[in-house]
Prior knowledge:
This protein is α/β, with parallel strands linked by helices. The chain is built from 4 helices and 12 strands. It has helices spanning 7-19, 23-37, 60-68, 141-145, and strands at residues 46-48, 72-77, 85-88, 95-97, 103-105, 120-124, 127-129, 134-135, 154-158, 164-165, 179-182, 186-189. The longest helix has 15 residues, at 23-37.
Amino acid sequence: MPGERTKYAWRREILATRAAVGPAEHAREASALAATAALLAGADEVVCAYVPTKTEPGDLRMLDALRERGATVLLPVTGAPGPLSWAHYAGADSLRPARYGLLEPTTESLPPPVVAEAATILVPALAVDRRGVRLGRGAGYYDRTLGVASVGARLIAVVRDIELVVELPEEPHDHRMGWALTPEAGLSELGDPRA
């Protein structure tokens, strides 16, 4: 059963599979994600998102598509373990290298509670299951942050299609997602995140 594998085993397998994705496939998937992301928010909505790393699905086109729709895009700023701070995304030129190989905005840092203003939160994930259980990298930043999100916010895990699985291991501190965003299937509703 998939749920019997440990989080460590899941992470190792998914990271190896992602590392084998070629540039052409990654670009194709990123283009598809950007096209769907453009439909996720309207003008004047706040979207908390992130800058995908080279092996994560998606790229800056996803963020640019949201901005072109008039959304305010906030990106995480990592600090000490705890809830994430955020900053406005003002285009590719507003990003700088940060810890963990990430890119972060050079704009003013906003405190963690600003996540409560977001109508949509795009969450990086290694995998997500049909119940909404998300597998992250294990640092816990998002699990600490999502507790501050608005109850009505759409929590969307961004994964490759093969990373939407039947069942993942779950721990009490894990926050469930309401949707998965994948290149092929687009936006898929998951099980009740409060169940």
